[in-house]
Each structure stands twice: as C-alpha cells, then as structure tokens.
Amino acid sequence: MKKRRLAKIAAVLSLALLVSAHAFASPTLQNGSHGHDVMLLQQKLTEIGYSLGKADGVFGKSTEQAVAQFQRDQKIRVTGVVNAATWRALKTAKKRPWGSDVQPPAKTDDTPTVKAPLAPNNVPILPRAKVSNIIQTAKNYIGTPYTFGGTTPKGFDCSGYLQYVFAKNGISISRLADDQYKLGTRTKSTSQLEPGDLVFFTTYEPGPSHCGIYLGSGNFIHASSSKGVRIDALSNSYWQPRYIGGKHIVM
Questions:
Q1: How many domains does one find in the chain?
Q2: 63 and 172 part of one domain
Q3: Which residues contact 106 (CB under 8 A, 6 or more apart)?
Q4: Which of 22, 210, 211, 248 is catalytic?
Q5: Per-residue pLDDT, 73
Q6: Of the residues 22, 211, 222, 248, which is catalytic?
Q7: Mean pLDDT lowest for which of 119-123, 165-169, 196-200?
Q8: Looking at residue 229, which CATH number applies to its domain?
Q9: How does residue 104 score in pLDDT terms, banded at 50, 70 and 90?
Q10: 41-60, pLDDT tens digit by residue?
Q11: I need a surface site. Which of 37, 47, 80, 212 has the fewest CB within 10 A?
C-alpha cells in the first residue's frame, strides 16, 4: 500500500514538472494535434477537474471544449488552442471547486437553472405547445456574437446556443452538437421538418459539428461562427451541401 501511495505521488510530481517545463517550451496544441504533449495536457485538465473523457493523446472536440472552458475560467482569451498563456495558467491551476461530482456555483441570470433531468435520446422531447416559446426565445438573441465554447448571451457557440434556448424553456439537453444529434428521430428529408425540430451540418470535422433550430419555410436559426446568431435558409449555398440531417423532436 505504501509503495502504491509513493508511486502515485511520484506520478503527480512528474506531471507537475512536465507541465512546468512545457510552460516554457510552449508547444502550440489544437484540434488535430496528437502525441505526448496532448496526453500531458489531457492529464493535467483531468487532474484539475475538467471532463474530457479518456486521456488518449488525441486532441479532439472534447479536449478542445475542456481547453475553452479552462481558458474561460482563467479569464484568458477563449480559443480552444493551447498556447503559451494557457500553458502558464495550467502550471499554477488548482483543482476546480466544482465538477462532475460537486455541485457548481449558483447560477446567474445568464445561465438558467434547469431542474428537469437530461432529455432522453431517440424520442421527441419538445411539447408542441412549447414550440412557439422556443422559437421566440431563439429569436430574442439574434445578433448575439459567436464565442467558441460560449453558453450565455455574452456569446454563444452553436450547441451552447441550443442548450441555452431549451434551458430557458425548462428542457435540459446535452452540451455538444454530436450529443444533441442523438435527440429525437431522424427525418428522411427537409420536407418532413416542422418548426422546433433540430437541423445538423458537418463543418470543421466529420459528423454533426454544427446545429440549429428549424423555423419553417426552409429557414433555421443558429449561432454562426462568422456572424453570430442569425437566420439562414437550408438552401443557402454554404449550408445546403453541409446538411447531414434533421432530428424530429416535436411531440
């Protein structure tokens, strides 16, 4: 038992020393990076309370989201890219006072509290009577700027925007686009969509990486990375070839 405890202490010290060294070497890491430096980053983020799944040395979406959240908590520029400033912050970062096993701090007006359990996958979740409220809430934030990792009216990313809009209406959905893609039932064509349903696109990586709420008449509302929250047509020359499907969530 003593040997195991000593080994654990040695591993923690080794990780701290490596992070300290990397703070000076400052290797830039981003989505698509892989190798020992990424493994080190993932281990450190996990150690201080950021959930990203398995530390596998591959910098994917979950690692990018964890980095963005860390940057936001540290009040440094939120990019999802690990640069010198992020390494320096990691060097002195302490374990978060909240996480998957601890309740987060009290919510502010910008982050609505939802007591409902997480919506189930593969079934409709939006009562038809709430559709107009969802759409009106979504439209209330037209013009809000895009912020990578953003989940409040100060700045949204696409999935953070959807999560916020639904939370405002008492419905709890997952944070990431690929998890939101598991909601509802798949529609075979855009003609089967109805207002309130979700629409998904592939952009910077394979699979569902962008999402929005269908408004009807071929239009959807979303948090665009270039222009913030706005309404676009599914037939738009950019979005049409990137459309991968809709999910029927209205019941």
A1: 2
A2: no
A3: none
A4: 210
A5: 79
A6: 222
A7: 119-123
A8: 3.90.1720.10
A9: very low
A10: 888 888 887 777 778 889 98
A11: 47
Q: Read off the pLDDT of each residue in 89-114 and give the average, rounded to a whole number.
A: 61
Whether 74 and 162 map to the same domain: the answer is no
Catalytic annotation on 36? Answer: no
Alpha-carbon distance of 69 to 177, in angstroms, equals: 16
Distance CA 86, CA 15 (A): 16
| Residue 222 falls in the annotated catalytic set | yes
Residue 207 within a domain: yes
pLDDT at residue number 4 = 52
192 and 86, same domain (yes or no): no
Radius of gyration over every alpha carbon of the chain, rounded to an integer in angstroms:
20
Question: Among the options 22, 34, 36, 158, which is catalytic?
Answer: 158
Name the pTM for this structure: 0.63
Residue 245 gets the label, from left (phi > 0), alpha (psi -120 to 50) or beta, of left
For residue 108, being part of any structural domain is answered with no
Q: How far is CA 214 from CA 64, 158, 191, in A?
A: 27, 13, 11
Average pLDDT value for residue range 61-67: 85
Q: How confident is the model at residue 105 (pLDDT cuts 50, 70, 90)?
A: very low
* Active site annotation includes 210: yes
Same domain, 178 and 227: yes
Q: Flag whether 117 is in a domain.
A: no
- Asked if the structure places residue 26 within a domain, the reply is yes
Question: Does 22 have pLDDT greater than 80?
Answer: no
Task: Give the domain extent around 217.
Answer: 128-248
